[in-house]
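During the no-cost extension, the postdoctoral fellow (Dr. R.K.) reprocessed legacy sequence entries with the updated structure-token encoder. One reprocessed record is reproduced below for audit purposes.
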Amino acid sequence: MADSLYQVMQDALREMLGNLHTATVARVVQVNETTVDVQPVINRVIDGESVQLPVFVEVPPVTLQGGGSYLAMPIAEGDYCLLVFTERCFDRWYQGKDEQPPAEMRMHDYSDGFAIVGVNPLQAAITLPQILTIQGDSEQFGNFRLDGDLVVTGKITVDGDVSSGGSIDASGNIEATGEVKGADCKTVTGVSLNTHVHPTAAPGPPSPPTPPGG
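Re-encoded structure tokens follow.
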């Protein structure tokens, strides 16, 4: 009798834990405007059978955000993510209603997940860098401040003005479709390189700018 009760309790506990969802790994199969559809990649085992889970649709992704600033990654199909399931139904909060009871009494349910995109299997693991590393194209909206050196291997394209309180060194060409101004021919402060000329000692028209060393 005791063994039978123990087995019943074990079975009940196993059933409860099997439906207590905390987190799982999934793959992005569709990117929507503000959500992603994901396919869990770890099957469940039910009655000894491996069962693939269905696609979870309209899952909100987690974004690094603070105040009006945020860092949004260009999520792509095939990216892996960690699905984290909340303790209670978050439907009312998601619709903009705080301090409300949950719309449904489900707990740790597959319906209440957030996607943290950026997990990888071993063969695609990213080597941990020593400094902040950005790979791929990026856009900056708003001010960008850097205290220190900025080293770029490649081409910098700027659509607008460039201001610097320090030195700018370039081992390649610097091209400008607007004016570059400086003080004199050496420091180019306040002088337009498009129109300035060099005076000559002999009478006659001024000579054009001479190349470096001239």
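DSSP finds two helices and eleven strands in the chain. The chain has a mean pLDDT of 81. The remaining legacy entries will be reprocessed before the final report is submitted.
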